[in-house]
Amino acid sequence: xxLPVLPSPASSNKHSTASANTPLTDNYGxxxxxxxxxxxDRCNLRCVYCMPENMRFLPTKELLTNEEMMRLVEVSAALGxxxxxxxxxxxxxxxxxxxxxxxxxxxxxxEEVHITTNGVLTAQYVPELKRMGIASVNLSMDSFxxxxxxxxxxxxxxxxxQNSFEMLIESGIPLSVNAVVMEGNNTDDVIAMCEKTxxxxxxxxFIEEMPFNGGTHELPTIVWDYKKIxxxxxxxxxxxxxxxxxxHATAELYRVPDYAGQIGIIAGFSRTFCGACNRIRITxxxxxxxxxxxxxxxxxKALLRSGASNEEVSTAIADCVQHRFRDGIEAERHTxxxxxxxxxxEIGG
Length: 349
Ligand code: SAM
Ligand code: SF4
Hints:
This protein has helices at about 65-80, 95-105, 125-130, 145-155, 160-170, 190-195, 225-235, 300-305, 310-320, 330-335, 345, and strands at about 35-40, 85, 110-115, 135-140, 175-180, 205-210, 240-245, 250-255, 260-265, 280, 285-290, 300. Helices cover about 30% and strands about 15% of the residues. With about 350 residues, the chain is α/β, with parallel strands linked by helices. Helix 1 crosses helix 9. Iron/sulfur cluster (SF4) binds near residues 47, 51, 89 and 344.
């Protein structure tokens, strides 16, 4: 069978196969245990760093079906993936999302299911997410100020998102709030957002802006990188303590002594964490990415729709994992289009 493999220039010299207890490792010896699955590219917000106002979404037939996603989760689990995160687009605008979450959480081998959401529709699902035993929720909220929230998301949904935040806090589900730090937009809010962790137990994470905005603006460099974000937080909290980074995590964690929550910084533009990267991504249109910054290395949707068996799909994924880029800088060097033309809503973040 001819596999619809997309071009990837990285070469492999090591090979590893997964078994029940040993996950697949890549050509640099990194275990692959984490799958991020973008269940749709559609969204009910229009965040300025993610997509243009007139974003053109994929036709439904270009999206993976729930059955196709389940096959890919099962194949990934057999290869050693233990953690799955559903993302998008906005996962909760996809019909049947709760059914998909339950099925993934019951899949043999999958130990943790997580979700990243913008919070517009999330509140109503919090009790069910809790019952399911979801491992964590990442809630995107770039400001706790209603006016700034509107400027950044172009939609009047602050009250709904704030309600989801409060429901999630009350539920006790481990919660991270993600804020993309954008020069000239929400940098004045950073300390106010940190201050929320004084009494509330969640992780307030600041993300460097990355160049995936659906072509709205080029992003050759950023002013607010992780060093500047950290310096501004340290200036407000001279006693800030470094907690560190947990295994394979992208966030460097800090805490203010005696505060209930934590503060995290994610160097998504600077890419300081690639050496421990354990993740693969499946985009909303069913493309496998072994690095956020690559162009996509395998058309999984075409492979599934060509009648491939699970074994063939598994072999194809394992082969791509043997040809990963060393890091996001190398991956970006090999991409032929500007990353800024892609929207994070299709990739899944
Ligand atoms: N719609 C959901 C949400 O916003 O949480 C899930 C999808 S969103 C693409 C996933 C994450 O990517 C969010 O935390 C969002 O803030 C982040 N993101 C989107 N575009 C980004 C960009 N250009 N740079 C950095 N992070 C970005
Ligand atoms: Fe939608 Fe999330 Fe992108 Fe914002 S970041 S436009 S909520 S997909």
